[in-house]
Write a structure and sequence with these properties.
about 425 residues; mainly beta; Porin; 16-stranded antiparallel beta sheet; two-stranded antiparallel ribbon; 4 helices; 18 strands
Length: about 425
């Protein structure tokens, strides 16, 4: 993105900021929060990251207290419809609803993508360590062409995830969920099986070896969930902790292509570095692990960087840049207050962050933590609504293998 384009985007965001400061009944951000009051922020989407390029479209952020603010956390949802410079059409709707007294939490994640993104095979490390990257023997003494770089894939994707969690004690929750992931119309652009110099991609190689149709597959199952959440705000926390354990079972009788199971383990923490009036000066920590625990997951459903619930992990890399049977990710971010106003004390801030990723590849004998891939960057924050803590985030990040990119989004990364 050129500097002139970036300037226009920031100028546009700054000048629409009053729309973030009102609800649909013209309540100003200076009003105290109350039960049932809807803080609705319709916004034009101008976002950017290396996976999708520049995205244009419409979004709406909604925040409200379903119960009394004194004993119920703010519920939030974010819906968007975008089209990108890489000809990708995407619809998302994500919700985090706290019922009165925080007795129940309802989590939703709905998506429809008509999209494309590159894959680099399974496991972290150089392409030469991976099967398709170095070429494979497909007949006696005959090898496929090596693939030294990205393998572009086009596909359509439907996700429907819903989870209900019941409070069992203060900040502790347990519950069940249903999850559907369906990939179809998959086009593996580099795949070539018709010539003497065959090109066999990582996706085709894995799908063929594990009994999946490389054109479509589905994952449908139930989950058991344990969660601890003491954050003061889910969108932009200033304090608290968050932990989640999800075990998901995907049997064929619920619609999965093959039986499988997976485990997700996540932890976030926030350490204050200043007392009021600057609670936004803090150190934030995030770590998660995603593991295939039984059976075989479809290739695009394997643990992958950037496929967490809000797609925010792995700044510096494209979504799905690292993928494997097991994946670990960790990030540390320093957040500092720069400038405030009387009505919005945390209006302008900055961050510096660093992250690491590691993924396995059983077939290529790449173990978890054998290769660790770093990323790092800096960013700016503009708080457009102090009541819901709606932030505009602008980050630039660098990683290995020449990876770098601009990330423009809404709300904190974690």
């Amino acid at each position: 993105m050129k500097a002139s384009q970036l300037f226009l985007i920031l100028f546009f965001i700054y000048n629409i900021s009053p729309s973030y400061a009102q609800t649909n009944d013209s309540i100003k951000i200076t009003d105290a929060p109350s039960k049932g009051k809807v803080y609705f922020s319709p916004l034009p989407v101008i976002a950017a990251n290396p996976t999708f390029g520049v995205m244009y479209g419409l979004a709406a952020s909604t925040s409200l207290f379903v119960g009394e603010p004194s004993n119920t956390r703010m519920s939030t949802s974010l819906g968007s419809l975008t089209y990108s410079t890489k000809k990708q059409l995407m619809f998302t709707f994500k919700s985090n609803v706290y019922l009165p007294n925080d007795n129940w939490i309802l989590l939703g994640d709905w998506r429809y993508f008509d999209t494309s993104q590159p894959t680099y095979g399974l496991g972290t490390g150089p392409q030469s360590a991976k099967l398709a990257g170095s070429g494979i023997e497909y007949e006696d003494g005959i090898f496929s062409e090596p693939i030294p770089d990205a393998q572009m894939m086009e596909f359509k994707y439907i996700r429907f995830h819903e989870t209900a969690l019941k409070k069992i004690r203060q900040n502790f929750y347990a519950g069940i969920g249903y999850h559907l992931d369906y990939h179809f119309d998959i086009n593996d652009n580099l795949l070539n099986l018709d010539t003497a110099n065959k090109v066999i991609t990582s996706h085709y190689l894995y799908s063929n070896a594990n009994g999946f149709d490389p054109a479509k597959y589905s994952l449908s199952g139930l989950s058991l969930n344990l969660m601890y959440d003491s954050r003061d705000n889910a969108a932009t926390p200033y304090e608290g902790r968050y932990a989640l354990i999800t075990y998901r079972y995907n049997p064929e009788f619920t619609g999965s292509t093959k039986n499988s199971s997976s485990l997700w383990v996540e932890y976030r923490d926030y350490f204050k570095l200043s007392k009021k009036p600057q609670p936004s000066h803090l150190l934030a920590f995030w770590v998660y692990g995603s593991f295939q625990t039984s059976g075989d997951l479809p290739y695009l459903d394997l643990p992958a960087l950037g496929w967490d619930q809000f797609g925010r992990s792995g700044r510096a890399y494209t979504q799905g840049r690292f993928r494997g049977e097991s994946l670990m990710y960790s990030e540390l971010e320093y957040r500092v207050h720069l400038l405030g106003t009387k009505k919005n004390p945390d209006f302008f801030g900055a961050v510096a962050f660093a992250n690491i990723s590691s993924a396995s590849n059983q077939d290529a004998n790449i173990d978890l933590f054998q290769y660790v891939e770093p990323g790092y960057g800096v960013g700016l924050r503009i708080m457009m609504n102090k009541t819901s803590r709606t932030n505009i985030t602008l980050d630039y990040a660098w990683g290995r293998y020449g990876s770098q990119g601009l990330f423009l989004s809404v709300n904190e990364t974690f």
